[in-house]
């Protein structure tokens, strides 16, 4: 087979080595525009998993790399004059220049034709003359550009700038420095890559860069001169770090990170590899790692599959989920650093934990396994900050307004579609009663509708008749009598999403008969299949506001402990908030302030009749997941408005506002919105923030709470799977909580481990003799 590899970086060279090893008859040519001793950057980082694959595939390459490694376990977080150290992480790094030299030597030994200082032929010409073209030509891939219609690439750039440098200071751990400068917050990522030096990356939000380095860039100096002036300023800003050591440049230029994604990695006999196909932010150290893993997978697929097309299809099928997972983690990490300034109020202990868990790959439980003492110190700090005893974060007490809860778990509102004429029945008693018996701090009803016309479906419950009130009172009394849990109701109006079938008959599908008229801020149907709603008049708004007030008064009489106003998911009040659904031209539409007017009027009217000693909270959709709709900035403004009007908590959900939405699902995918609102609004106004959305393990809950990303977590489907989830989570963590006396005989630690899903994936590195929690890198450790 005639194989052409475009790009002589780690991905291209390593693929050539592996392909030649598995197919000695292959004719392989590598095209590299740079000289063999040209290399840009300093160190590269590997995981033990990647190194295991390299060792298995080519022991000669692995052995040569092993002689160069700097290995260490610790991460040091330098913040506000303190150093927090977490051990057990396990890193292996080496000089990028040495890695390329090793791979080049291996290519020579195997007779691979590597053409340095040679620009590859036109991609179409190369594809015509080769059986396979491997595009490993980096983030600015010419091959990807040539066949862009097939690869369909996109590049997402963000708001931070960074400069990749080196230093002859040899760090003894992975270092994060948070610098509070006159220009704003900057962050340093640093790690050793050998006995002679370390990588040093300075990163900051573009606003900070403009204040600090913008004047230098505006002087009219050439790029080289401008970059050197920048480095001089960095030496001044980071003088305490270097302590006289040198700061080194190597084609170092200010850059804005771009995340490359391609809808396809294959065009006929051309395939993308490494950065040409995908990038992931350097803060999780993944670029070279991913590229060499790509090379391993592609070479194996070529060897195992009977044809090139089948091999390329198998390669993409195998690698795409892995890369997507890494990119999600890298994106979370990137955005965390981009928004770092919102966390600089945190105490050093919490800040360090927040930083370490930013990508969601390292978690509370994971840190306990990596470094038990460090995790214990975090638990102690959190307990001391609350004036309580040590407990898992989820079991620390919390207040929503004046309502005291023994733990931070909420059974999220979940529509059951099982009421008759709006009256909750035996099903609701068992459903909510069982969840209350299961140990959660508070159990929420599904959305209770303020009128018959405000129901979503014929099976939705209401609170607009005396019979409904009596039925709800029975359920509340059971919860209060038989359990320590509190019970809250979610109050809402379906708006344009009403008069639809039960969920299992067709989500959001209109009823085949017996429809009622629906209403909305504007005459815009939810989908082409749904009714066009009646645009509400100002007089009708007053009538609906009064319906909310009457329902709230009934809820108070029924004994509910908390009331949540539903302003999310595209129901009536949510429709007023979104510019996608509110096209009014009067005082209830147009500007954000006008769109907030009616929801705030309803909130204020309820607050006036709701008992002062019971909290009133709000659920919002923090993003519409659609261009032109509300997103994070608008969500902060909406949350702030409700906080200013006295909301005791903001329940942060997302989406379901328009049927065309394009949500980005994933584990805990909604929590970044809660995180921002908690740190920008909740902290300022003393308003609790509730995180929701694909939170399914107690490990995730503990991580979110301890990092300060939320005050409470609401879990829905998890409690459908296991109504006693909170009790079981306590047992799994060996934390004592009171069980219902009737169930006491079943209270024992689980015999088979966790009860809430599989064990978390651990990327622990225990190689090179570093078995302790705090193994430091020393230059003399190099072989």
Describe the structure.
The structure is a single chain. The protein has 783 residues and is α/β, with parallel strands linked by helices. The chain has 2 domains: 2-218 and 225-339, FAD/NAD(P)-binding domain (3-Layer(bba) Sandwich), CATH 3.50.50.60; 391-743, TIM Barrel (Alpha-Beta Barrel). The chain has 26 helices and 29 strands. Strands 5, 6, 10, 11, 12, 13, 14 and 15 form an 8-stranded mixed beta sheet that branches. Strand 18 and strand 19 form a beta hairpin. The chain is globular, with a radius of gyration of 29 Å. Residues 752-773 have low confidence and may be disordered. This is Bifunctional salicylyl-CoA 5-hydroxylase/oxidoreductase. Residues 4-327 form the FAD-binding domain. Pfam families: FAD_binding_3, Oxidored_FMN.
